[in-house]
Amino acid sequence: MTETYDVIVVGGGPSGATAAEDLARAGRHVALLDRAGRIKPCGGAIPPRAIRDFAIPDRLLKARINNARIVAPSGKTVDMPVETGFVGMVDRCEFDEFLRVRAAEAGAERVTGTFTTLARDADGTAVIEYEPKAGGPARRLRARMVIDATGARSDLARQAIPHQGHPKCVFAYHEIVKAPEGAPTAMYDPMRCDVVYNGKSSPDFYAWVFPHGETASIGTGSARKGFSLRGSIKALRKETGLDRFETIRVEGAPIPMKPLKQWDNGRDVVLAGDASGVVAPASGEGIYYAMLGGRLAAEAVNEALATGDARALALARKRFMKLHGRVFWILGVMQFFWYRSDWTRERFVKMCADKDVQRLTWESYMNKELVRKKKAAQVKIFFKDLAHLLGLARA
Ligand SMILES: Cc1cc2nc3c(=O)[nH]c(=O)nc-3n(C[C@H](O)[C@H](O)[C@H](O)COP(=O)(O)OP(=O)(O)OC[C@H]3O[C@@H](n4cnc5c(N)ncnc54)[C@H](O)[C@@H]3O)c2cc1C
Fold first, then answer.
1. Which of 2, 66, 152, 289 could be bridged to 278 by S-S, CB 3.0 to 4.6 A?
2. From 2.60.120.10, 3.30.390.50, 3.40.50.150, 3.30.9.10, which CATH number describes the 68-91+171-256 domain?
3. CATH number for the 4-41+92-167+258-324 domain, one of 3.50.50.60, 3.30.950.10, 3.80.10.10, 3.40.50.300?
4. What is the structure's pLDDT at 395?
5. Which of 111, 143, 149, 144 minimizes the C-alpha distance to 130?
6. How far apart are CA 153 and CA 265, in angstroms?
7. What is the rounded distance in angstroms from the CA atom of residue 265 to the CA atom of residue 66?
8. Whose CA is nearest to atom 50 of ligand 1?
């Protein structure tokens, strides 16, 4: 008879590895199934809150960013220096493996293979079928609970909660290039992230240049069918002079833009991370939210196992949305509104020059909390927003 795990976590990215580690530390018998062999396409920017909450060691930070340069359609730029702290840059190949190893050290059993099917044994227990990486026949693992952390457009999510479609996605594409060496230039600075807003780079999102120590990620995203992401990056590399540097990898992946309405099947499966749609709209930031989603899924599963009440699985979504639902909603409105034309983008970038806007943006990004104490600044920003929106402030 096949062994039965308390929990099988499917997908060993930031979300799944965090969930597996937390459950193992809580004393659960856990398997972490990951297909391995593919580096997740990602800009790799993480906030101090992620470093703090998930004990990310310094050695994983390839760069510490202290400035964001926002580029308007007209070519005007606004610098947003980070006054306290920095944005950490990780290499996803190394970062994800570190998290998986840490989960294994905590007691999770690592299994390498590709999930194919969520089946049921005669007694109704969940069975995860997968193809082992090493080859050979398909294998089965039984589990009392399953966490789906297989990322955006998850097959497992579709099988577990069939009536629910996939969340709306932006498709993101980036090229990893060898980073320019020597002193910083106007075009490239190893301590600065460039964020480019214009319709030719992306009609509905933004393009970026993110330094990673010896390499840099230059990418863009769009939900618009037919928009040439490769064409956009080719042009941006030419404009920034990054076309003269060796291309190391080119890759792309979908980024979900809205949390799904339902994260669990009311029985024994709960979604976490990109599989549940938790990437911040407007910015596309997903690593911190994936790790938090993994942690909350682990907590919910632990409670369901302890009480025998599967309704506890719904707590993962409830707790996440309580913490971040409002910010996601605000960012969604921002993306819809400011990213719609070059006229609005120009005004958006102009607004970023405001010191209050900069302070609030960085504080919210760094700590993942809306800054409540600065009510007066928020009111001021609201009226400034309105002035930019109505064209009363000069762009
Ligand atoms: C181009 C791009 C740039 C980005 N830049 C940033 C950024 O700078 N900062 C940021 O915070 N976020 C960024 N994001 C978003 C971020 O990458 C994701 O939100 C984050 O990786 C989600 O983590 P996850 O663990 O939920 O899923 P993933 O990281 O997608 O992990 C899923 C895991 O599941 C495994 N898996 C998938 N299918 C199967 C299967 N069938 N069987 C077994 N295993 C499977 C995969 O191998 C992988 O290990 C970016 C995304 C893209 C596409």
1. 289
2. 3.30.9.10
3. 3.50.50.60
4. 45
5. 111
6. 17
7. 43
8. 42
For residue 364, how many other CB atoms are within 10 A of its CB? Answer: 16
C-alpha distances in Å from residue 107, one per residue of 8, 17, 101, 190: 13, 12, 10, 38
Closest protein CA for atom 38 of ligand 1: 150
Which of 9, 40, 170, 175 to mutate for ligand 1's pocket (most ligand atoms within 8 Å of CB)?
40
C-beta separation of 174 from 246 below 8 A: no
Instruction: Give the pLDDT confidence of 153-206 residue by residue, as tens digits.
Output: 999 999 999 999 888 899 999 999 999 998 888 889 999 999 999 999 999 999
Domain with CATH 3.30.9.10 in the chain: 68-91+171-256
221 Cα nearest atom in ligand 1 = 1
pTM above 0.90, yes or no: yes
The answer to whether 40 and 13 are in contact (CB under 8 A) is yes
Q: Give the C-alpha separation, 376 to 381, whole Å.
A: 9
